[in-house]
Amino acid sequence: MHAHCDVVTSTTHKTLRGPRGGIILIGKDKENPFGIKTLKGDRTKMMSELYDSSVMPGIQGGPLMHIIMAKAVAFAEVLNDGFKVYAQQVIKNAKTLADELMKYGFDVVSNGTDNHLMLIDLSNKNISGKKAENALERAGITVNKNMVPFDTKSPFVTSGIRLGTPAVTTRGMKENEMKSIAKIITTAIDNAQNESKLDSFVNDVKDLCSGFPLYKEII
After folding, report:
1. By C-alpha distance, which of 125, 123, 124, 95 is closest to 110?
2. Tens of pLDDT, residues 67-107
3. N or C: which end of the chain has fewer CB within 10 A?
4. pLDDT tens, 19-40?
5. What's the maximum distance between 2 C-alpha atoms anywhere in the chain?
6. How far apart are CA 188 and CA 193, in angstroms?
7. What is the DSSP-derived secondary structure letter of residue 20?
8. In the 8-state DSSP scheme, what is residue 155?
9. Number of other residues whose CB lies within 10 A of the CB of residue 166
10. Using an 8 Å Cβ cutoff, are 98 and 175 in contact?
């Protein structure tokens, strides 16, 4: 890591599938370049010391031991071969979803995706990101409104939405389900002004999700 950058930050939820939180990773430790010394002034502080003191007591409250344990479980999952399979499927699903949406006339900003998410410019659909987010929420699909390059709308309205595939992949969905999701998204956005139709799409979402329960029944 230190060959490319000094610090990497990430959330521990979302793609890592752990509890809500964050992590700060540093590569090879070194003396800070700012000349910050210890209180005694006998040496220059290491970068790790600056990060530690900034987090605690700077911006962190009391430690939550159950969350720390949950993070440990999440990191243990990352070490298993199954996580690699999951990560590969996340990308396959994202590629399929992006390709399908483009077939329906959506403008994917990156003309596809190589990672777990995509940004959709809705300008050609004559709907704002905020309205699309609300319409999809009513239909049972959660997305985020998101600004697009050279956006003319405010951050509170936006011209786009952001989609990701880790959550549905965790449930076991694959490429065929991405095609179904793309169709539902398209139909919902096309009927964004028709609340009764949006409500009817909830059943389509429920039918799709019913085959991929969040938790398996334990008998």
Report:
1. 95
2. 999 999 999 999 999 999 999 999 999 999 999 999 999 99
3. C
4. 988 888 888 888 888 888 888 8
5. 71
6. 9
7. S
8. T
9. 20
10. no
* Peptide linkage before 149 cis (omega within 30 of 0): no
Helix (H, G, I), strand (E, B) or coil at 25: strand
Tell me the one-letter amino acid at 201. Answer: F
Q: Three-state DSSP class for 206?
A: helix
Helix 175-190 with 129-139: angle, nearest 10 deg: 120
Nearest to 171 by CA among 17, 1, 7, 11: 17
Domain locations in the chain? Answer: 7-78, 81-210
Encoded amino acid at 195, one letter: E
pLDDT digits (tens, 9 = 90+) for 167-190: 999 999 999 999 999 999 999 999
Strand pairing partners for 146?
160
Report d(CA 1, CA 8) in Å as an integer: 8
CA–CA gap between residue 47 and residue 174 (Å, rounded): 43
Cα–Cα separations (whole angstroms), residue 215 to 13, 121, 184, 203, 208: 17, 34, 24, 20, 15
Q: What is the pLDDT of residue 41?
A: 80
> Using alpha carbons only, what angle is made at residue 132 by residues 186 and 166, rounded to the nearest 5 degrees?
75
- Predicted TM-score of the model (pTM): 0.82
Taking phi over 0 as left and psi of -120 to 50 as alpha, with beta for the rest, 50 belongs to alpha
User: Domain spanning 81-210: which CATH class is it, in words?
Assistant: alpha beta
CB-CB contact of 41 with 191 (8 Å): no
